[in-house]
Design goal:
single chain, alpha/beta, L-fucose Isomerase, Chain A, domain 3, 5-stranded parallel β-sheet, globular
């Protein structure tokens, strides 16, 4: 399936030059940087080299017009020499998109007079001017380098820029209030607007009406055929595919008809308690299919969960999932399958679970089944529609962006892995391992009132997520501290 709901970044490389330094120094260094980037990353085609080198405000306006005319949506301001702090920061102020600042290292001991650029010093002035103007820009960990090193900096900026562009052009579509006793997934919309996200809240009845109007849709057979092909031998509930295909078309049409002025969408969907009895199925498999296309559909009307998933999809350009931080790993499972084989304590491990919303491409094996928890109190036939299987082993990043009940933005990021250990359970589930998870669970997730849902990106994207959250204005970003690094409220006498 194609990823059709994620932006493509086009980064403008703009060189700047202070008037008392040779402009040729910045221009030649810019050109060497562009060549280095093309040699290493040229296949991506996401870098545009602005021909205007900025020395003053008029140059800045010319450069701004040029990069806009060429469809750039991200900005890389390169100090080939000391740089002019006013016009180089005004460019970011007037440019509608994420910006990074970085600088050229000196090149040769044989050319340290006319060939010395002093950009190391100029970056200090640039950063201070950005602060004075209230501009949030991405500055790499060590923002001064050779052409090859600076090419890597641009490549490192690309997924961060893509995620910020995505959020600023996103609409989250929700259906229904959260289920009873799910207050943890609170969603103050004020901070969504602060982030630049649009929100459309709808009734389940609106969705049900639209679903019924899609009965007999001529596209249903082709969607069923696609589902059958994807499920293969795991198609254990063929009798529900007709309704699932009808529901998938309902959601896709809703997205197209309701995106309005926004380029991208994510969905916070309802799945119980009345959904299954009225629709006659559970939507887990459909949610997984849309998520695999870059249209995350969170469970239980988790609006910030949908936003978190979407950020992860934009950064990784891959399918993501949303899971409950669900249950401990049984002691015998740890002793028999993990201890001595992997470098994790028992408290470093836990199981991440949801009924069946994880895309099939991220499961080691998958079957269409019924929702076991719901079927304890309901007829089994109205709980069909889950995609069950152990989640495939590999690196993961567990994370979440959340507004608190008093409208403070905070986030957490923790890297780890899914272990190749059979869960012996049901649903979409995996054995997760994150170093120092026990303390992270206690002093971040519990103490800071995070909900039980966490977003999962398949790979290590902690750096990109951390920097994206910073650019989005999140000032409180937590991570899993090692034992030697206590949390502020961790009892030192335990």
């Amino acid at each position: 399936m194609k990823f059709t709901n994620i932006p493509k970044e086009k980064i403008a490389l703009v060189a700047v030059s202070r008037d008392c330094f040779p402009m040729t120094l910045s221009v030649s260094r810019r050109d060497r940087l562009a060549k280095a980037y093309e040699e290493k990353y040229g296949a991506q085609g996401n870098l545009y080299v602005c021909p205007v080198c900025i020395e003053n405000e008029k140059d800045m306006l010319k450069a701004l017009d040029d990069i806009k005319a060429n469809g750039c949506n991200a900005l890389a301001v390169y100090l080939g020499n000391f740089g002019p702090e006013t016009p180089e920061t005004l460019l970011a102020k007037y440019f509608d998109g994420p910006a990074m600042y970085f600088a050229a290292a000196e090149e040769s001991s044989g050319d340290m007079c006319d060939g010395r650029g002093d950009a190391y010093c100029g970056m200090l002035n640039a950063s201070y001017n950005l602060y004075l103007r209230g501009i949030s820009a991405y500055i790499p960990e060590y923002p001064v380098g050779t052409a090859e090193e600076c090419a890597d900096m641009i490549a490192g900026f690309a997924p961060i820029a893509r995620a910020v562009i995505a959020v600023k052009n996103l609409k989250i579509i929700s259906f229904g209030p959260r289920p009873q006793d799910f207050l943890a997934c609170n969603a103050p919309i004020k901070r969504l607007y602060d982030l630049g996200v649009e929100i459309e809240e709808n009734s389940e009845l609106d969705l049900f009406e639209s679903f019924n109007n899609h009965a007999g849709d001529e596209r249903i057979p082709s969607v069923i055929a696609d589902m059958e092909k994807e499920l293969g031998k795991g198609n254990k509930k063929p009798e529900v595919l007709q309704k699932l295909a009808q529901y998938e078309l309902t959601l896709l049409d809703w997205c197209e008809n309701h995106r309005g002025g926004r380029k991208y969408v994510a969905i916070a969907g309802k799945c119980w308690p009345a959904f299954q009895t009225q629709f006659g199925f559970v939507p887990c498999y459909v949610n997984s299919r849309l998520t695999s296309r870059g249209i995350p559909v969170s469970c239980e009307v988790d609006i910030y969960g949908a936003l978190s998933e979407y950020i992860g999809a934009a950064i990784s350009r891959d399918a993501v999932t949303l899971l409950d931080i669900n249950n401990t790993v049984p002691a015998d499972m740890y002793e028999n399958n993990i201890k001595g084989k992997f470098d994790y304590t028992h408290r470093d491990t836990f199981m991440g679970f949801h009924c069946g919303n994880t895309p099939i491409c991220k499961l080691s094996s998958a079957e269409m089944k019924y929702q076991k928890i719901m079927a304890r109190t309901l007829p089994q036939e109205c709980t069909n529609g889950t995609l069950e299987g152990d989640i495939a082993a590999g690196e993961i990043t567990f994370f979440r962006l959340q507004s608190t009940s008093d409208c403070k933005l905070r986030a957490y990021v923790a890297q780890g892995e899914i272990l190749p250990v059979q869960t012996c359970s049901f649903g979409g589930i995996g054995v997760f391992a994150i170093h120092d998870m026990g303390r992270f669970y206690r002093y971040v997730l519990i103490n800071k009132n995070y909900p039980h849902h966490g977003a999962v990106a398949f790979g290590h994207f902690g750096r990109e997520l951390f920097e994206t959250f910073k650019l989005l204005g999140v000032t409180e970003i937590d991570y899993n501290h090692p034992e030697s690094e206590k949390y502020p409220d961790e009892n030192p006498f335990k």
